[in-house]
Design a protein that fits this description.
Elements (H helix, E strand, L loop, with lengths): L77 H7 L4 E8 L5 E12 L5 E13 L1 E14 L6 E16 L5 E20 L2 E20 L8 E8 L2 E8 L3
Antiparallel strand pairs: 1-2, 2-3, 3-4, 4-5, 5-6, 6-7, 7-8, 7-9, 8-9
Length: 244
């Protein structure tokens, strides 16, 4: 007895999408479909390498790898830890700095740098650090932007206070820094060309701070002398690369 006639083949409408998801490329080959890989809450370019010490491997609050410290980024000061975090997010961390000579602890409602826009934010923050670099800072807001290599930057402080003494300067140079300042509002910017830079700023502040140190911001093997001073309303700084 003959069986029922075969059913006609009906083309699958492409506008419905691939029913096998990412495994659809294997259809007809006998291979099993491949499961999609989770990308986290903010898929985007991965962290970019930067000069500095070893990076932390502990994700920030929320558990997403997107909010880790960038690979190779320096974390020797509170400012550096803000720039090193790939993506602003709630923050609470403690550990050893990238140079291994200080320990720190800190928390903030928001802290980090967006790798796509360069915008940095540190909101409702407090931190402390002891070792060869000693710092204490508290603030309502720090906002700014920086280039991926950190050589160009602009920032604004709103109701912040900090005190510091040690060898790791905010611009990445190593030498000596000391001071204490309380700022109602202030703005500061740095422009860097081939290792030579100039820094300027204005603020409503009380106190003073300064640093002197040696760095190699453009990684060309030539050292740069960096000097910066803030006194009440004014900030001025410069770096000069050794021409020899």
């Amino acid at each position: 007895m003959a069986g029922p006639p075969p059913l006609p083949l009906i083309p699958y409408p492409s506008w419905l999408g691939n029913p096998l998801g990412q495994g659809g490329q294997n259809a007809g080959s006998g291979a099993q479909p491949t499961a999609a890989t989770p990308t986290g809450p903010a898929a985007g370019p991965g962290p970019t390498p930067d000069a500095g010490g070893p990076a932390s491997t502990v994700p920030a609050a929320g558990g997403s790898e997107y909010f880790m410290y960038r690979q190779g980024a320096a974390t020797d000061t509170n400012n550096q830890r803000t720039s090193a975090r790939s993506g602003p997010a709630p923050y609470a961390d403690a550990g050893v700095t990238s140079s291994g000579d200080s320990v720190f602890a800190g928390a903030a409602a928001i802290k980090g740098r967006d790798p796509n826009t360069g915008i940095e934010a540190e909101i409702f923050t407090i931190s402390g650090q002891v070792g060869l670099q000693n710092e204490f800072q508290v603030g309502m807001a720090r906002m700014g932007a920086s280039s991926d290599d950190g050589r160009q930057s602009i920032g604004m402080d709103v109701f912040t206070a900090r005190a510091m003494v040690g060898i790791h300067n905010p611009d990445g140079s190593v030498g000596l820094n000391a001071g204490a300042m309380a700022t109602a509002i202030g703005i500061e910017g740095t422009a860097n060309y081939s290792g030579n830079s100039i820094t300027g700023g204005l603020s409503f502040s009380a106190g003073a701070e300064g640093h002197v140190g040696i760095r190699d911001s453009d990684g060309d093997g030539s050292s740069e002398l960096s000097v910066r001073v803030s006194v009440m309303f004014f900030t001025i700084g410069f770096a000069i690369e050794n021409p020899f």
